[in-house]
Write a structure and sequence with these properties.
Helices cover 46% and strands 21% of the residues. It contains twelve helices and 13 strands. It has a five-stranded mixed beta sheet. Strands 7, 10, 11 and 12 form a four-stranded antiparallel beta sheet that branches. A hairpin with a 2-residue loop joins strand 1 (48-51) and strand 2 (54-57). The longest helix is centred in the N-terminal third of the chain and has 25 residues, at 59-83. The protein starts with a helix and ends with a helix.
């Protein structure tokens, strides 16, 4: 039995795409196809059928999924128990984080962590890859949510306020005739993602600018932020990203609101692993020191209320 076959099979069953599974595993698509063919021949069953939309799992494949999940949980429990006893300040820490937050906040602070802990290797994993801490695919996850997973432990890093922003030129055009503000006269950017924070932004757009023609829509927060920076439209954005951005200005005539908070979560088996705990404390310190900057001027009353 080659356990690598099950790793390839699990990636395929979760993505239902040879290319997506290859990206997840960091290999070529041809390698994934070859391993699947060999696996199916060895088992003597067809695990997936091909369709125009991608792979479709067969009943036999679904049975393998259930059995692999059970075995993986048992192995994960053993691994987690042993890893939790690791007290060395060295090794790998795998962190899932929204890419835009990593770029705008965490990467700037990492040289200090690297200097203090040179033997810890950080793997920064963008959240859109869909990795799961509960399945030991990462050690820590940072996510904006009102509903953190019950199987993980952690705490809120910061409240996330949401407000409208635009370039100074666009906001100046909006406020030129402050007595008759008409938000619909300027272009807006819409965020089409399925996250809780994207839904908050969409709700605010529908509430304050219900009839505006949207100039650009995107499923990426990174592109959403960059579109606003380039002056292509006004946008509702998390203040943790936009407030300290010198290219953007908040529209004061619309009050900010609190969206879902930023959590940092870890598997219970890893909470006493030293290399994990020092990184957790490092991130908490970053958010604590920069809390006023991240929430923004005039936001404290909103948080207190």
């Amino acid at each position: 039995m080659d356990w690598d076959d099950y790793k390839y099979f699990t990636a395929l069953s979760s993505t239902l795409s040879v290319r997506a599974a290859a990206d997840l595993l960091g290999v070529n698509a041809s390698t994934v196809s070859r391993r699947l063919d060999l696996f199916e021949r060895r088992l003597g069953v067809t695990l997936f059928t091909r369709s125009a939309r991608g792979l479709v799992i067969t009943p036999e494949g679904a049975e393998v999924v259930a059995r692999v999940a059970s075995v993986a949980k048992d192995l994960g429990d053993i691994e987690g128990h042993l890893i939790g006893r690791d007290k060395k300040l060295s090794g790998i820490v795998r962190v899932i984080i929204p890419e835009v937050l990593a770029l705008s906040l965490l990467i700037q602070e990492l040289p200090r962590f690297q200097k203090s802990y040179p033997d810890i290797e950080l793997h920064i994993l963008p959240s859109h890859q869909g990795l799961d801490v509960a399945r030991r695919e990462a050690d820590i996850t940072m996510q904006v949510t009102n509903n953190p997973a019950d199987s993980l432990v952690g705490r809120v890093l910061a409240p996330i306020a949401v407000a409208p922003y635009g370039t100074k030129a666009l906001v100046a055009r909006l406020e030129k005739n402050s007595s008759t503000l008409d938000y619909a006269k300027l272009p807006w950017v819409d965020w089409q993602g399925d996250s809780e924070i994207s839904q908050t932004c969409r709700d605010l757009l529908a509430t304050h600018v219900p009839n505006t023609p949207v100039s650009i829509s995107t499923h990426s927060l990174l592109l959403h932020l960059e579109t606003a920076r380039k002056g292509l439209g006004l946008a509702f954005l998390p203040c943790i990203l936009a407030e300290s951005d010198k290219t953007l200005q908040r529209i004061d005539s619309i009050d900010p609101v609190l969206g879902p908070p930023m959590w940092m979560l870890v598997h219970p088996d890893l909470r006493h692993t030293l290399r994990v705990t020092v990184f957790i404390e490092f991130v908490r310190d970053v958010f604590s020191r920069r809390s006023h900057e991240l929430i923004g001027s005039g936001m404290s009353k909103l948080v207190i209320d």
